Amino acid sequence: MGSQAERYKSGVMPYAQMGYWDADYVPKDTDVICLFRITPQDGVDPIEAAAAVAGESSTATWTVVWTDRLTACENYRAKAFRVDPVPGNPGQFFSYIAYDLDLFEEGSIANLTASIIGNVFGFKPLKALRLEDMRIPVAYMKTFQGPATGIVVERERLDKFGRPLLGATTKPKLGLSSKNYGRVVYEALKGGLDFVKDDENINSQPFMHWRDRFLYCMEAVNKASAATGEVKGHYLNVTAATMEDMYERADFAKDLGSNIVMIDLVIGYTAIQSMAKWARRNDMILHLHRAGHGTYTRQKTHGVSFRVIAKWMRMAGVDHIHAGTVVGKLEGDPNVIRGIYSVCRDSFTQQNLEQGVFFDQDWAGLRKMMPVASGGIHAGQMHQLITYLGEDVVLQFGGGTIGHPQGIQAGATANRVALEVMIKARNEGRDIWNEGPEILLQAARWCSPLRAALDTWKDVTFNYTSTDTADFVPTATASLMKLTQGTFSFLPELTDTEIKAQIGYALAQGWAIGVEYTDDPHPRNFYWELWGNPMFDLKDAAGAMLEVTACRKAHSKVYIRVNAFDATRGFETTRLSFIVNRPAKEPGFHLKRNEIGGRQIQYTIESYATQKPEGERYE
């Protein structure tokens, strides 16, 4: 670089000579590291282009300024230290740039992004610039709240384990009155879905004021919960013009008893973090719709990779994020989607170039974020969805529920049966990727809603080439009330052989087995009576079956369930739960409504069985 006098001589100097390129730099553990895809203009050296990105995203301007000498400028300059050609893409380069931690305000996505994706993306010497990945140091990660609720706590609040959650978006998303909108929510939830949601552009339009929608939707949620014995929810979209409006809507949703609210990505990073703090304070799940992301994440050479957006949103504190489906109608390369899901759900994300993950990422104990798969998926793809996306995901079948030829409830039932039969088959050791279509056809023989769904959508696919792909490739229902808690409650009652197979699956994962019973199956009765202590060191499923048999003998007229507990760090919760014994008659629940003014209603769900004393409830 020469002498200080030469370095600070007035005029224009190449960025690399100003100190923004250092091939010998070794990043510190506390550095933020970014991986940019740069496409220099013709004649621009890639190293100079990388140095320019480092400079323009940290302390540089187009000319030398003497005021640099009033600071410890060497510490504040970002440093490009590595430039690699992008495989198979001539003229494109991967540039690694390190930023000192002191460049960023603690706990602020807005400040972080103002530097990393600020003016530099309009820099003329570059044809295109894309932020592909970031390594956030633990020291900086710990300044962020992370998800308000997280996957583990969400599952415990909902009492749903061992399977993906099921949801749907109300259709049509615009135009319905509040009352008709609530009808769709009720039908879908009663039919077997866990959630229904507002779409991104449902706010407070002339045809449906937000307050009316909230009131009717919560009536639907509570009525469906009483009808099924399950905890249900509806994502009430609180997106609005101002933070004051959003807080007002969120507070009203909380007052009505909702367990979840929703926001859109377009509200901005500061508003997202503000709502995440509100959700943490108020014990609410926070769902984020990624509205608008495709304007800057979809193109491969310019913008921001969605895996980076997912990383920022986990830090910002949302609980749910739409993250792609692979097999649906929206953009999603299988490897790229797997990488995004890893960012959402890992405790420690390992580098995986095939999936577009360029850095190891220690999440420093931040809670896990639930990915949401939606957009053109249906029951016939269930084996593909579970294989690609795993268990910790919300599968949202909007058209695939509401467009069912037998009605909305039937559509929801078709999806729930398809899900449960596929999880059951996987746990039994079957190859669901190859056997999946046959597994679904077998279930369709006894489930007419599933049969109708398969007949309706069997030929529907969205097999288009993805624009965002990784650059590295490897070398060589019944009318009587039935409690539907648990993983397999929409299937025919499990035989002892099938129960033993599920217990065997749980033991193979290293999970402990517990048996519980109750005569009070209220949706929020999370503490059933223990039948002995959990079996932590059990190796043979036959041992657990002995306990199930003994519990049945002692409590034949009540509900009995098997739980599988995972003590692994990052989980430490139930991973599978299913009912193995029911009363001959299930009386169900009564929904009490208490009007408190302003058309608000406080809901109470009571079990008809508990009107009798313990020991006499199912006589």
Q: By helix and strand content, what is the structural category?
A: alpha/beta
Tell me the Rg in angstroms.
27 Å
Q: In what range is the share of β-strand residues?
A: 15-25%
Number of strands: 21
Distance between the termini: 90 Å
Mean pLDDT rating = 91
Share of helical residues: 25-40%
- What kind of sheet is the major sheet? 8 strands, parallel
User: What are the segments in which pLDDT stays under 50 over at least 5 consecutive residues?
Assistant: 473-479
Strand order within the widest sheet?
Answer: 5-15-14-11-9-8-7-6
Helix run count? 21
Global morphology? elongated
- What does the oligomeric state look like here? single chain
Give a summary of the structure in a few sentences.
With 619 residues, the chain is α/β, with parallel strands linked by helices. It is built from 21 helices and 21 strands.
Question: Can you characterise this structure?
Answer:
The protein is an alpha/beta fold and 619 residues long. It contains 21 helices and 21 strands. The protein has an 8-stranded parallel beta sheet. Strands 2-3-1-4-10 form a 5-stranded mixed beta sheet. It has a 4-stranded antiparallel beta sheet with strand order 17-16-18-19, with helices on one face. Helix 13 runs parallel beside helix 14 (334-345) and helix 17 (408-427) crosses helix 19. It is elongated. It starts with a helix and ends in a 12-residue tail after the last strand. Mean pLDDT is 91; it is low at 473-479.
